[in-house]
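Quick one:
INPUT:
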């Protein structure tokens, strides 16, 4: 799992996220379960914070690598709303 463009604990940053990465991962997993995704079939491939948009992106990749066997959870820090987008 990697964190891209932004923030990692202990590193310098320009814009500090409102939420810690651990909290975002926990919330994303809970949201995915609410949306009926079977988390045992996926692993978190990467977590990214877009400082310019104040949005988190958590990418879940299926254990079997195949087109469409993934999904993404978006979290907007400004509105605190989450969205799930299935892979294609």
């Amino acid at each position: 799992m990697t964190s891209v463009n932004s923030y990692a604990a202990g590193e310098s940053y320009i814009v500090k996220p409102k939420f810690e990465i651990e909290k975002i991962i926990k919330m994303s997993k809970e949201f995915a379960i609410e949306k009926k995704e079977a988390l045992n079939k996926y692993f978190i491939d990467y977590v990214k914070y877009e400082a310019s948009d104040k949005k988190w992106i958590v990418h879940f990749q299926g254990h079997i690598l195949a087109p469409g066997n993934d999904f993404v959870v978006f979290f907007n820090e400004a509105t605190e709303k989450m969205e799930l987008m299935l892979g294609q």
